[in-house]
Amino acid sequence: MTIADMSVITAEVHVDETDIVNVKLGQPAEITIDAIPGQIFKGKVTQIGDNAIVRSTGLSTSQSNSSSQEAKDFKVVVTLDKPPANLRPGLSATAKVTTGLEHNALAIPIQALTMRDKNDLETQINKGKSAQPAPALGAKKESQDVQGVFVINKSKKAEFHTVETGLTGTTEIEVKTGLQEGDEIITGSYKVLRTLRNGAGVKVDNSLAVKSES
Predict the structure, then answer these.
(1) What is the DSSP string of 139-171?
(2) What is the spatial distance between Cα 126 and Cα 69, in angstroms, rounded to a whole number?
(3) Is the whole model's pTM more than 0.85, yes or no?
(4) Could you tell me if 156 and 186 are in contact, meaning their C-beta atoms sit under 8 angstroms apart?
């Protein structure tokens, strides 16, 4: 016979390996339970797994002999603060853990952020200026990838700004340095932002955005 202690209710959730580094003990969480729709329960993180779990097999990496490159998760236990009396063990649940909090933060859409080679950007912005002597053989610069955003300047040209990022949300990311509130930025697909020339002329057309909002 198994006797369950219903005075303490926990939810075991799996957190992706890219996010587990931000999860800490005691962080607040919001839990939703499939069997009780429309209600959100408060809780906090009380346990963080040490071993990764292979997503496809559900086995811990310590139990696997092969060094799999598959996606991995970590088990995180969230304890509910005030569990309802109608809860039962084994119900499916989802938890949202708050890993950071910032007030009056400057945020941009995640799809506006891109990685570009610093030397390539400098070459593009200097193109058309006075001719420079060709570099000596063997003096090729190493690639230096930097993250940033393309800003539309007063001349209606795309200008790359290196940015320092902070907290990441579902669709937006915090920008600590490199941008100012009110800057007009360019968003687009990964391919477009990777090939956009620094200093290229830009025509602003927000008609699609207006239609989607109506």
Answers:
(1) -PPPP-EEEEEEEE-TTSBEEEEE-EEEEE-SS
(2) 42
(3) no
(4) no
